[in-house]
Amino acid sequence: MAQKRILLIDDEEGLCRMMEAILMDSGYAVKGYTRSFEAVEDFRAGDWDLVITDLKMPGMDGLEVLERIKAKAPSIPIIMITAHATVDMSIQALRKGAYDMLTKPFEPEELLYRVKNALKTTELIEENRELRDELAGKFHFDNIIGDSEQLKDLLHRVEKVAIRDTSVLITGESGTGKELIAQAVHYNSPRKGKRFVAINCGALPESILESELFGTKKGAFTGATENRQGLLEAADGGTLFLDEVGNLPMNVQKTLLRFLQEQEFLRIGDTKPTKVNVRIISATNSDLMAEVKAGTFREDLYYRLNVVNVHLPPLRQRKKDIPLLAAHFIKLQNEKFGTTIRGLSPEAFQAACNFAWPGNIRQLCNVIEACMAIESDEWISYTVLAQFIEIDEAPEPVAESDDNYSAALARFETNYLIGLLKKAEGNVEMAAREAGMNMATIYRKLKKYEIKKEDYS
Fold this sequence. Notes:
Elements: E1 5-9, H1 13-25, E2 29-33, H2 36-42, E3 50-54, H3 62-72, E4 78-82, H4 87-95, E5 100-103, H5 108-138, H6 149-162, E6 168-171, H7 178-187, E7 196-200, H8 206-214, H9 231-234, E8 239-243, H10 250-262, E9 264-265, E10 274-275, E11 279-284, H11 288-294, H12 299-305, E12 308-311, H13 322-337, E13 343-344, H14 346-354, H15 360-374, E14 379-380, H16 382-385, H17 405-423, H18 428-435, H19 439-448
Parallel strand pairs: 1-2, 1-3, 3-4, 4-5, 6-11, 6-12, 7-8, 8-11, 13-14
Antiparallel strand pairs: 9-10
């Protein structure tokens, strides 16, 4: 783990040097200043993990130091030290963003304890930032695999919908990737810094589903010994994804409709409404309008959920994407298990492209995983593939007869490399690190596909 860096400011030189020695003996990298102006002038965001500053100092006092450093690095924790702490002064410091107050005199153990706690905050902030960046990158539109016109049109629509804070209904057969699209909407929206919470409305019984969504009030029923937050409240500021929304019971539909109209709801057993700010994205593989006509789904709720409809075509209607998806799943399995399967044999490739894939992308992913678990050759053979899908004796010809595996893999690698370069702003070393490849391999592939890094810098 990298050595933690602490900026220390105290006009009392003896105390400053003493704290510096204590912290350095504990393994921290420390730089001490006795002049606050000089410390603030030298401070650069990203250079430090923690600031410790005295409150009462000549010239620029601790509160001004706090303000100026927070203006440069809002998330850095700052510990304030004072021998004259008053309640008013402490409140001022905490309101301005101080992490902790330490009163003189203090023992070395207390200083180290406070520092350790403050640095945990830094680590959590950094981990959360890295996780958000990773998720945003994972669900960037460039990372959704496919080259068909249907997918391109779909992603263009989703990209426009993402930035508009409105309800979205995603429709399509099971296994077409509805949750992946919902995550792409969230992580490309202004809400991406907040939580994406998902629930399968068909996986829970009615009584549990209602409490999971809306939470419960203490004493609402036997065993409800405390207030319990529901998923809607947990998603405050972010997005709630309701998968299989057609399975919502009527009483839950009514409560959800009220939330969509008023942005508030009642916990079970509560009389006081709870207000939250949540975007609703829902998905279904059923015909909701048919359910409206049958009286099993509220018409007013249907129109509230279906402000924008995004329909995912089944895989059989976007056969051009099958080779790219297969190559992607093979790559993921190779990375996960250290295998070296190169792809589908020509016969298996033809069969995969002609198969209807009733389970869509999910089925393709599972079949590739199963094939790779038993395949002993470097290519997935027709014989192995036939163990997991029913292959017709006379399958329909592939729409693009000249589209072989090599061409599909080339398209996939080209799109993947361009996506890496865009993310790394043309920096090949950064792109290689992101892909887990050496730079020589990246350069060779860039030359092979005539991709110029300068186009993305």
